[in-house]
Write a structure and sequence with these properties.
The complex is a heterodimer. Chain A is of the alpha/beta class. Chain A is built from 17 helices and 20 strands. In chain A, strand 4 and strand 5 form a beta hairpin. By secondary structure, chain B is α/β, with parallel strands linked by helices. Classes of the chains: A alpha/beta, B alpha/beta. Chains A and B meet through helix 15 of A and helix 4 and helix 5 of B.
Chain lengths: 483, 218
């Protein structure tokens, strides 16, 4: 049975104090009221106008009075559930734990069999969904790559491949536009049973990107409204690049990013008060010489952690970004460094859901075994944040007394019980198996583990009738959307 | 009154579970009920300790399980062995004198080796730490040892292992006593260089090595 092991920290990390949070909130409200956000969607502009926002129809820019913003945001739930196909894989977003998922949505992959780089296909989405289902570190699945063999219908095929290969919750970041969103909602209803059951147990959720600075994407916003009305949890992610699409100071970058996200969440609440939404900011800095995006910088680590606090200050769950995401190849010093900073910092800050496992080259290239490396870092973090047990059993006075000076603790029953709770890294500290000595090269060890998962793990199949219904939706979508 | 089969399987289980107090109590009760102590050892404790070894090999058991299994076996043996009649006698694979060399106070590794060897059918005399070559040779004479095990944890005390071999030669015992060496800085090539009969990396492989040294399959 697939299971998930969330991170439940007993100590935390705050990079912003309450005065700083108040200053960021007030600056965000100022930008929303006086600078405004562009919503290139007549439908969205009409909703804002109807609710008393100041709308410039020509420039498609809305300015939001603070009361409208805070009133709308007060309807957004802090806690809700992202459902798996089985209850054991549900994610409870209530501020007590962090759930991690895969990264997406790449366009190329290193083929696991041939080792050659090639355009990604639907079968890659399916294969990685099986791996994700097996790993306890993965609580929800982002289709990791694009189903490029499926043409314009790729996003819906990515959902189909995911539903067919994992019982875990699926989060799409690619099904955009009003009509595709409607098909995705129908697929969700088929998985959940019907529209009511889908509201109670949404089997998928959606992440939509804003456009920095201070803009929205028409297809994203219109899809978001469809999802919010259907009860599908929807989040917005701002990706400010300090120096180019955002101010070069972290504070200003967070203000711009937050204004983008909050304006979109307000729209969702105006369309459907109480719609489950989430907040996400993934910052980076501009390379000062080339204007390229530099993924791994201290500013990013800090902003991503601050973003968790900002989301919670606005009373909604957050999606944070973690792991290396960038680097030329797996198992490198660079990926290790970035993975530890990002994953540990956002987990300690209390991020509700976190994406990022398994990708390289700024999240464009899937290297399957990278997910195995990220899994190991995840588990180290998960153990680390459990803290230190100072109960009588944890302090072990009886055992210390029994052993005394110059003895050893190996023959103690207390030791026997507790060594079972050590989390021993499997890749860096491999053990002999029945197959013999572990490979000396860590990347080969990761590949061996991935190979075992692919060979042995069979996902719980969808009922044939449900598979057929999903296929029928894809067929209809293909005809209607001009495939 | 428990049946013979049941008592033997409870003994085996106490070793598998690594419960020394329980193993001792079951052994006592078995003797009171008139069970043959040799059968208790060969059909109870031995299958138990073999099972512990298997579970360790397949990754299910850890070192503390192995040691507690060995402790349970030792606790039961302490009850059963005195009850063996003279004509019987437990099958002992070899007699080992074990110690840490002169100038070296490290105890744990050597003690683990002793526990493992005892649990796997060797008779072990543990002479302790900081022992001179003369101490090793005297103990080997007294115990009529087939193997000496010498532990050294420091690069500065490693040469003591060689001196033990020299002392054995001088005493005319080198032909009768095999020497196995171990400890953190020790390697196979060091063992070969000083003319030792074998080196083992840890307490588990020490059992295999000792078996080979007495002419048994590892």
């Amino acid at each position: 049975m697939p299971s998930i092991q969330p991170i439940q920290p007993i100590f935390g990390l705050e990079v912003l104090d309450s005065d700083q949070l108040a200053a960021l909130r007030s600056a965000t409200l100022h930008v929303l009221e006086h600078v405004g956000i562009q919503f290139p969607s007549q439908q969205a502009l009409d909703v804002f106008a109807e609710h008393g926002a100041e709308v410039d129809m020509e420039r498609q820019v809305v300015r939001l009075p603070p009361d409208l913003v805070t009133q709308a945001m007060s309807h957004a739930p802090r806690s809700y559930r992202l459902a798996g196909r089985v209850n054991e894989t549900d994610l409870i977003l209530d501020g007590t734990r962090s759930y991690f998922g895969t990264d997406g949505c790449g366009t190329e992959t290193i083929d696991f069999e041939t080792g050659q780089q090639r355009p990604s296909r639907k079968e890659d989405v399916a294969k990685m969904a099986r791996v994700a289902e097996y790993l306890h570190s993965v609580a929800f699945y982002w289709p990791m790559v694009s189903a490029r063999d499926c043409g314009r219908l790729a996003p819906l095929h990515e959902l189909d491949a995911s539903f067919n290969n994992t019982v875990k919750h699926v989060q799409t970041e690619t099904v955009m536009g009003e009509q595709p969103a409607q098909y995705a909602v129908r697929m969700g209803e088929v998985i959940a049973g019907d529209s009511q059951r889908m509201r109670a147990r949404p089997p998928f959720s959606v992440l939509i990107c804003t456009i920095a600075p201070l803009g929205q994407d028409k297809e994203g916003i219109e899809a978001g409204m469809v999802y919010a009305q259907a009860g599908i949890p929807v989040g917005f992610m701002a990706m400010p690049t300090m120096g180019s699409t955002a101010p070069a100071a972290a504070g200003g970058a967070l203000v711009v990013a937050n204004a983008e996200v909050i304006s979109a969440l307000v729209l969702m609440q105006l369309v459907t008060p109480g719609a489950p939404v989430f907040h996400s900011i993934l910052a980076s800095v501009m390379d000062p010489r080339s204007a390229n995006y530099v993924v791994s910088t201290p500013e990013k680590y800090l902003c991503n952690t601050a973003a968790v606090q900002i989301a919670h200050d606005w009373g909604v769950p957050t999606l944070a970004g973690a792991f290396g995401m960038d680097g030329p190849e797996p198992a490198t010093w660079q990926l290790g460094r970035d993975s530890v900073y990002t994953a540990l910092m956002v987990a300690l800050a209390g991020a509700d859901i976190v994406t990022g496992g398994g990708m390289l080259r700024a999240s464009t290239l899937l290297v399957p075994e990278q997910l195995i490396f990220d899994d190991e870092i995840y588990h180290i973090n998960r153990k680390l944040v459990e803290g230190i047990d100072t109960s009588p059993d944890g302090l072990a006075l009886d055992v210390i007394t029994a052993v005394g000076p110059r003895g050893h603790f190996l023959a103690q029953k207390h030791t026997r019980r507790h060594v079972r709770q050590f989390w021993i890294p499997e890749l860096s500290h491999p053990r002999w198996t029945t197959e013999g000595e572990p490979a000396p090269d860590i990347r080969r060890r990761a590949r061996a583990k991935l190979g075992r998962i692919l060979a042995e793990h069979e996902p719980e199949p969808l009922e044939e009738a449900i598979q057929a219904e999903l296929q029928a939706i894809l067929d209809t979508a293909g005809r209607q959307l001009g495939m | 009154m428990t049946s013979r089969g049941e008592a033997l399987s409870r003994l085996a289980q106490a070793v598998v579970d690594g419960e020394p107090e329980e193993a001792e109590a079951i052994a006592r009760q078995a003797l009171e009920e008139g069970l043959d102590p040799l059968a208790c050892i060969n059909e109870g404790l031995t299958p138990g300790i073999n099972r512990v070894g298997e579970m360790f090999s397949c990754g299910e058991y850890f070192l503390p399980d192995l040691i507690l299994g060995g402790e349970a076996m030792k606790a039961a043996l302490a009850i059963l062995e005195p009850a063996l009649v003279d004509s019987q006698g437990r099958e002992v694979l070899g007699r080992v004198v074990l110690g840490t060399v002169k100038g070296d106070m490290h105890e744990i590794g050597k003690t683990l080796v002793g526990t493992m060897l005892t649990a796997h059918g060797f008779h072990v005399t543990d002479i302790g730490i900081d022992k001179s070559p003369a101490d090793f040779v005297a103990a080997a004479k007294q115990a009529n040892a087939t193997i000496i095990g010498a532990s050294a944890l420091l690069t500065t005390t490693m040469p003591e292992q060689q001196r033990i071999i020299e002392a054995l030669t001088e005493a005319g015992l080198r032909d009768q006593v095999k020497v196995m060496v171990g400890g953190a800085p020790i390697t196979q090539s060091w063992a070969e260089k000083i003319g030792a009969d074998g080196y083992a990396e840890d307490a588990i492989s020490a059992v295999g090595l000792a078996r080979r040294l007495v002419g048994l399959p590892a």
